[in-house]
Specification:
By secondary structure, the chain is mainly α. Helices cover 71% and strands 0% of the residues. The protein has a single domain, classed as Serine Threonine Protein Phosphatase 5, Tetratricopeptide repeat (Alpha Horseshoe), CATH 1.25.40.10. Helix 1 runs antiparallel to helix 2, helix 2 packs antiparallel against helix 3 and helix 3 runs antiparallel to helix 4. The longest helix has 23 residues.
């Protein structure tokens, strides 16, 4: 669903999965990416950090978290300066 353009539905499904399996790396990571896709940076980073807690050596997650934080900062800066916000990269 996530890649079929049904991000909100995917989030609901993933939240149910994560609720039933709180330590699920895959559900937490997928939730993080789903939220980032919708430019919900706080939620996305929170879930990616939860996934990272399950796999602390995951370099890809570390890079994606750093990128999400940079994207969030850029979005805030653009909004405060009145510039148009660039569409998400994913």
């Amino acid at each position: 669903m996530l890649f079929a353009g049904k991000t909100e539905e995917a989030i609901a499904d993933l939240e149910r999965i994560l609720s039933a399996n709180p330590g699920s790396f895959h559900a937490a990571a997928a939730l993080g990416y789903a939220h980032l896709r919708l430019r919900r940076y706080d939620e996305g980073v929170r879930y990616l950090k939860a996934a990272l807690a399950q796999d602390p050596e995951n370099k890809s997650l570390k890079i994606d978290i750093d990128q999400a934080l940079a994207d969030a900062a850029q979005t805030v800066a653009e909004k405060s300066s009145g510039q148009s916000v660039v569409s998400p990269r994913k």
